[in-house]
Amino acid sequence: MTTAPRATAPVSTDVAEIERALTRIVYLTSRVRQHDRMMARAGVPLDRAAVALLRQIADGEAVRPGELATRLAVEASHVTRQVQQLQKAGYLTRVPDPDDRRAQLIQLTPFGREAVERIREVSCRGMQGALAGWSPEELQQLATLFHRMVDDFLSYSGEDEAREGE
């Protein structure tokens, strides 16, 4: 069931412009053609969902499939299918969970880690080219503000979920 937005103060022009810019960035970076070019340059034949999953695992330690589904905001069955395919292709492996012998954790294989590194290298080179006219100070400021924004989004999302549970 979808609920109507709460009546609050009007959205500031700056926030609206940030939302607009983020929407454009997401669109530009998630286009199929863009993804296919990046995968060709990296030499990795994976779809966007598989890349998102591998990158999420690479950003942390071995993880349970349910936790991975939560982080990616997808159904557990989606993660299970992806993990099976990526395991079969040699990108992932399952290991026993040291805290619960009945559970398994998913982690990258060396082949999977190498693939993620190549994808990140190609992605960063493209971004570096696009931002070549920015000063080092501007790049540092942008990186700091992006990390702050992500942290605030995650914090707000957690508060929002807590409010829904009330």
Descriptive key words:
166 residues; mainly alpha; Arc Repressor Mutant, subunit A; 2 domains; two-stranded antiparallel sheet; 7 helices; 67% helix; globular; HTH_MarR-typ; MarR/SlyA-like; WH_DNA-bd_sf; MarR family transcriptional regulator
Structural features, described:
The chain is mainly alpha-helical. The chain folds into two domains: about 30-130, Winged helix-like DNA-binding domain superfamily/Winged helix DNA-binding domain (Arc Repressor Mutant, subunit A), CATH 1.10.10.10; about 135-165. Helices cover about 65% and strands about 10% of the residues. It contains seven helices and two strands. It has a two-stranded antiparallel ribbon. Strand 1 (about 90-95) and strand 2 (about 100-110) form a beta hairpin. Helix 4 (about 65-70) packs across helix 5. The two termini are about 15 Å apart. The model has no long low-confidence stretch (mean pLDDT about 90).
How is the biggest beta sheet arranged?
2 strands, antiparallel
The counted number of beta strands is 2
The CATH class designation of the largest domain is Mainly Alpha
CATH architecture of the largest domain: Orthogonal Bundle
GO molecular function: DNA-binding transcription factor activity
Domain HTH marR-type: 15-151
Protein name: MarR family transcriptional regulator
Topology record:
Layout: H1 13-30, H2 32-42, H3 48-58, H4 65-72, H5 76-88, E1 92-97, E2 100-108, H6 110-130, H7 136-165
Antiparallel strand pairs: 1-2
Entry summary:
The protein is mainly alpha-helical. It has helices at 13-30, 32-42, 48-58, 65-72, 76-88, 110-130, 136-165; strands at 92-97, 100-108.
